[in-house]
Amino acid sequence: MFRLSFQPYQRRFKQALRTHHGLWSQRDGILLQLEDERGRMGKGEIAPLPWFGSETLEEALYFCRHLPARFSLHELEAISEALPACQFGFGSALESLSHRPAASENKEALLHSALLPTGKAALTAWPALWKRGYRTYKLKIGVSSLATEQDLCRTLLSELPPSAQLRLDANGGLDAQTAQQWLEICDGSRPTSDIEYLEQPLPVNQFEDMLRLSKQYTTPIALDESVATLPQLIHCYEKGWPGIFVIKPAISGYPQQLRQFCQTHAIDAVFSSVFETEIGRHACLQLAATLSTRAVGFGLDHWFAD
Ligand SMILES: [Mg+2]
């Protein structure tokens, strides 16, 4: 049997993050501590991202508040698929409690991608990140006009050192025509290219169009919003997605199930953050250390004031 204690938290960003989903200025989440009958403690974190399809913070709080004072392993393993961030929080707390061997050496060897501020600020932000050792950068697009963003992208590419790599993330904010225009720019910068991939060009309901684009262009397309939870990821895998899968473990569901899926299917995966705290991040990076095939998207420390 287990007992739970939990604490909601808020962390403000130094500067709000602008994406196609809107402006985001504060991360709200819940820190968990599980205790078993032997007095062992395990920590976990619930970091919901409702506009990606996870539960809301309120739904997660409701779940935590309505758990019985003592509950069984069976109850922990039967959290609804509608609460993927809770599944992750409780699943990783359970792993930390039973001290699953840490892949700490691998974890430190992981390469990280740094998220640039959206728009012109990206041009002044990258040099400091370069000095801190980042070589892969991510830029949000699909926010202002196509011409403005493409100019910015060209300038950024001309300023970045040749060994840098750039990821473009549209958060589903393009249409078929603008997606093609972006992919032409991306392909045009090859073979020396510096654009690693284009992430989620079209909305989730346009899977077939993204599949078609991924066959037309050389630059890989990565699905992110389309594969937010493990059931969605499995669905796209089964429909034959040939490109990259962005995995945000904190909203994917149980880490045990994610690990099992990734270990039995050869997928090209990028592990990515949802701005969780060190507790959630540790659990995510442990998964990434064994499963990731590319630089992971956890280069976000520079976004928080604390
Ligand atoms: Mg994304």
UniProtKB/TrEMBL annotation:
One GO molecular function term of this record is: magnesium ion binding
List the catalysed reactions. Answer: (1R,6R)-6-hydroxy-2-succinyl-cyclohexa-2,4-diene-1-carboxylate = 2-succinylbenzoate + H2O
Pathway(s) per entry: Cofactor biosynthesis; phylloquinone biosynthesis; Quinol/quinone metabolism; 1,4-dihydroxy-2-naphthoate biosynthesis; 1,4-dihydroxy-2-naphthoate from chorismate: step 4/7
Q: Which cofactor does it need?
A: a divalent metal cation
Q: Cite the binding residues for Mg(2+).
A: D169, E199, D224
Per UniProt, the enzyme's principal EC class comes to lyase
| Name of the protein in its database record | o-succinylbenzoate synthase
Per the UniProt record, the source organism is Acaryochloris thomasi RCC1774
Q: What's the gene?
A: menC
